Amino acid sequence: MLFNSVDFAIFFPIVFVLYWLLSRNLTSRNILILVASYLFYGWWDYRFLSLIIISSLVDFVVGKMIYKAESKKNKKLLLCISLIINLGFLFYFKYTNFFIDSFINAFALFGKELNITALNIILPVGISFYTFQTLSYTIDIYRNQLKPTNDALSFFSFVAFFPQLVAGPIERASHLLPQFYVKHKFNYNNVKTGFLLIGFGLFKKMVIADRAAIVVNQVFNNPELYSGVEVVLATILFAFQIYCDFSAYSDIAIGAARTMGFDLMKNFDSPYFSKSITEFWRRWHISLSTWFRDYVYIPLGGSKKGKYKTYANLFIVFVVSGLWHGAAATFLIWGAIHGFIIVLEKATNKERKKIYNKIGLLSNKFSGKLFFSMITFSIVCFAWIFFRAPSFDTAMTLIKSIPTNNFIIFFTDDLYKLGLDRYQLVILTLAIITLLMLEIINRRKNLVVFLKNQLFVFRWMVYLSIIFIIIVFGVYGDNDTSQFIYFQF
């Protein structure tokens, strides 16, 4: 079930009303959440509900057994059971065909053709997200950082919690699970800010992301037809498409959860204003980057075993992150680019600061912030080419065509071949500028608090304007009403 669908527009108000009617009875409330979550997920394909149930059951039982186990050996054995089952599902559905194709290509290099075909495997929506969420539970128990729960209903509801089930944020049990043990009191401010976040998320998804998708799909699916500024424009629009698409999901998830009294972690923090790739990853998909830090980078040794080992660990984490996003060489390259730049930033940190000081390019000045933000955004956009391209050859075709100059497109009817006319392109540009301005203001002064302190008439003018824009330019505008990008991961 999509957040931007009529189905969800009917589903969520019903769940919201029933939730608060049952809120005094904790058991009834959690039963409602679990049933609603399974209905939400099963709306896509009920057959894959079994995977969520199995993962939940395995980690609920294994978590209790790890806590009771007396020897370190038995604890490790039990943790391995959880890892094998959960990662086994993930690898089968997500990576089987990748390794089959790699195996075939490896033999083809030596002139040997294998008569093997890829399997017809459907990737379950959100499997990477709920797998990481349940794994963090058992790993934290193994590390003695968390005690297992005896409340099966709360645990199953925690794993399947519908607002963030499919595309995060990836929550830790230590933060979200205890919220299923307490009765939440109806809070008007939480409900109001929650629906405001939902509205803002729908604006980003339906007005910006889905409109940008038209140009992006046109160029990336037909790379031989485009060059120069067309490729640059499509790449920049993809940067905003994926950000608005993914952060919109997080906004709606956080907002929906907040209306029911739940607090989900922040997943994005204006990442395109970052002044380095290191800072970018502190602001982009925060729940995933912190997950990799805690469960991959630190177990590898983190920064405790010398600088070269630290560089290797950082690079490995980003290559693994690339593989997590998709079973393709393009995702590995995307992860490797980010890993390489972060290692380079860390290795040259002192030297770069000295150079910047000498030439007067300080990061705390406006000129410095603008310069470093533009450089960082350019690197991120270049890496996005590999992320979005359907193949390595497509990515290279697009990159090679960038030096070609064809700025005349903006003054001729050739603009139509990008899929959007000038009117729609202006709407998209204004929407992106509005988004960036709102993020700048929000970093200086919380917009929710700001609106809260305004007159009733002004607040409702803002609310009604958001609804109007979503309906006119989102529901009835020229856009590609596709599912959220991160559903495929």
Automatic annotation (TrEMBL):
Gene Ontology BP annotations: alginic acid biosynthetic process
Entry's transmembrane regions: 6-22, 50-67, 76-94, 114-132, 152-170, 225-244, 331-349, 370-387, 423-442, 454-476
Cellular localization per UniProt: Cell membrane
Keyword check for Zinc: no
Chief localization: membrane
Pfam families noted in UniProt: MBOAT (PF03062)
Membrane topology label: Multi-pass membrane protein
Keywords: Acyltransferase, Cell membrane, Membrane, Transferase, Transmembrane, Transmembrane helix
Entry GO CC: plasma membrane
GO MF annotations, alphabetized: acyltransferase activity
Keyword Cell membrane applies: yes
Family, per entry: Belongs to the membrane-bound acyltransferase family.
Protein's name according to its UniProt entry: D-alanyl-lipoteichoic acid acyltransferase DltB (MBOAT superfamily)
Organism: Winogradskyella eximia
